[in-house]
Amino acid sequence: MSLHLAAATASNPSWLWYATRGLGAATLIVLTCTVVLGIVTATRWIGRSTPGFVTADLHRNLSMIALGLLLAHIITTVLDPFAHISVRDVIIPFGATYRPIWLGLGVVAAQIMIVVAATSMLRDRVGPRAWRAIHWIAYASWPIAVIHGLGTGSDARAPWLIGVVVSCVVAVVLALLTRIREGPLSTAPIRAGAAIVTAVVLVLSTRWALGGPLQSNWSARAGTPPVKVAAHVGPVHPGPAGFSDPLVGVLVRDASGGLQISMRDTVDTALTVAIRSPDSNETLPVVTVARGSRVLCTVPATAGATLYAVCGTTRLLITFYGSQLVLTSGGQITGRLDTSGPLN
Amino acid sequence: MAMNLPAAPSAAYTPVGWRLMAGPAFDTGCERLEDHEQRLKRRPAGGPWLIEVIARSGLRGRGGAWFPTARKWSAAAAASQGNAVVVINGSEGEPLSSKDRTLLSLRPHLVLDGAALAAESIGATEVVLYLSRDSRGTNGAVERALEERRRAGLQEAPIKVVRTAHRYIAGESSAVVNRASGGPSKPMFTLQRATEKGVDDRPTLVQNAETMAHVATIARYGSDWFRKLGTAQSPGSTLLTLCGNVRQPGVYEVDLGARLGSVLDAVGGTVTPPAGALVGGYFGTWVAPQALAGLPLDAERLRAEHGGSLGCGIVAVLPRDGCGIVESTRILTYLAAETSGQCGPCVNGLAALSEAMERIASSAPQPGDLERVHRWIGMVRGRGACHHPDGAVGQLAGALSAFSEHLGLHMSGRACPGHDVAGFPPPPPSGDRWR
Amino acid sequence: MSELVQRKLRVNPILCDGYGYCAEIVPERIALDDWGFPIVAAESIEDEEVLGHARRAVGTCPRLALLIEEVPSRLTERA
Hints:
The complex is a heterotrimer.
Chain A: H1 2-11, H2 15-43, H3 52-79, H4 87-91, H5 100-121, H6 123-126, H7 128-152, H8 159-181, H9 188-211, H10 218-221, H11 229-232, E1 244-253, E2 259-265, E3 271-276, E4 286-291, E5 294-300, E6 306-311, E7 314-321, H12 324-329, E8 331-339
Antiparallel strand pairs in A: 1-2, 1-8, 2-3, 3-4, 4-5, 6-7, 7-8
Chain B: H1 33-40, H2 48-57, H3 69-79, E1 84-89, H4 99-106, H5 108-122, E2 124-132, H6 136-151, E3 159-164, H7 173-180, E4 204-208, H8 209-221, H9 223-226, E5 237-244, E6 250-255, H10 260-266, E7 276-279, E8 285-287, H11 299-306, E9 314-318, H12 324-337, H13 344-361, H14 369-380, H15 388-402, H16 404-411
Parallel strand pairs in B: 1-2, 1-4, 2-3, 5-9
Antiparallel strand pairs in B: 5-6, 7-8, 7-9
Chain C: E1 5-11, H1 21-25, E2 30-32, E3 38-40, H2 48-60, E4 66-72
Antiparallel strand pairs in C: 1-4, 2-3
């Protein structure tokens, strides 16, 4: 009974999951505004009525808001039970069970954002050249965040998310084009290189998005762990002691007079036992023990109403109940499986 | 033809065969260590005593700033914790100057003696000889001299040669420190002087090669001997490069107490009656022809009477019909191309000034050009990380003032005969490397 | 009477790229030249309000080129 309840929880996300998605989208929007303002500050495009320092201050304030949203997004992610993302997964990237690569990218983007913000707050100590070098790396956090957003979400195909992502990308690309166009001749090669890098990243990301998150089978390909009952429940007989379970199955006699028995453990229902009579070059019946589709062993057994076999290091005793009639003409058969240890 | 100048009071004067330039004849080339030691005897060991002697001698730096040498040594000695660095600046990026090249290729051991004495006096464990890559004659002589000292096993701080591209600004103190620390030969912005924090953040003494040579003689002969020449404020002798409209251009050792007229007389005078002269190199002062004969070489008098300085010891004489406005503009254009490109006011200001002055020098000014020039001269002064813009606009302002009457000709659009007159050395092409 | 410590605004002309935010924030002390680069008044800042603006300008410069140099100075004779 308890197994069924676990399954129910696993397939219905809580409000925390939706909060995480919403906060993530909000973080991306505010981060996009921050990046656009940062780029525009560098072009020194000053509106006729707005002093330039206002753009710089706005950039800084928005980055603080983005950090706040990022923190909330991370907290709801860890608290939410649906995807089982632990605190460790949020600090060390690429180790989660839930879509490890795409989640890991989010961790990387978050860490870049935090480092950039920290060095800006301590810029007097860090010094002009180190501060500037680290601030350049901030450029990387934005595309990584976008790809993270597309890769981790179960609603990458939802129109609202596609709308948000496209708007953000358009805004940043336009701002970049404005910056790349301006500048002295001496920086022309760097600006041309930046234009090429931007175009390449844009094309590759779009192709990935169209062939990846926007496809219907993305969830499985992204590494979402299957919501299996067995995943939440451990083995029925974990060991080290053996067990004794009733068996139920069928007996079939084939044309040449050979005998095949196929039975299932009624307690550990994944466990199956099959017995067949010996071939022409064998003397003993052969027992096959399997768990689901995985064969545990195929071994000879002593003959008789009780079969004795050794599976790995575990001794098995298979006892058949029922009348002689079943044994001669086939039909349902019951029995018992006694083991000296676990069969996992 | 004799120079057509009023008679000037002259001291008894022998330009060659004295002090730094004493020793074997110049056509025998570089003096070897054994001859140097035989002629001058081995140098004494340096120490704090030498800083005192140099203070009494009144020696001033010969790199262009004329800064009291003892004060620099005291500052370096105070900051040093046994880890100071001595840098001999022999790069001579000033195109009109040849004195450091001459000194290093004929009397290198004087310079190296001076550096060793400096190292011992301020507590330095390392000496850097900073040279241009281009002066092949110098480089050969210097390498031989270093090898001789190594083989002789002299007990002195090891000397390392650091080479730089031949740029005007490569000789600036912070550029020297930058290059010697492994960076490009570009000036740096720093709130601390090199004597406190220089090469590899160690206390550093940067000294012109000629200054080091004077130290080597003072250490042997004393401060009283040094003061026998020169004036109270500018004692001793100095190396002067004479070029342009002179019969025998070259490097001469002169008494700082002399007047320019007697120096020129002694070396054969000018070829044609001069139209003026540039004293002190590309950051120097333009002097009208009537002031040349009586021009003092003493730093204080020169500043008081003409607002200028001898700089790194250059007098470049204009030929008859030579035009100070034209030559000054050529120099300004060269200096504009030789900025390190790091500071907005200098890069933009010198470029704008050069453009306007080219028009004026060609007698084709646009309305407002002269007003703009004066405005920009005031706007650029003091706003770079180093004194490159100051020197450049100072030279220009001096020309505009010294040749103010002739400037009228240019501004009215009449052709200037001096535009294509030969006889004043033009600036060389600007370089493009920084190491 | 002068302060114990003189506070002077200085610009590192090598780092400066002529954004001009400093001139917007503390025009009492900084003007722009013909090419957009700051001309910084050399006198010490005595006014606390101006000092506040100056500190803000230092924090806003995108190249970290502006700084406030604290120079200890002698006290003049007190009455």
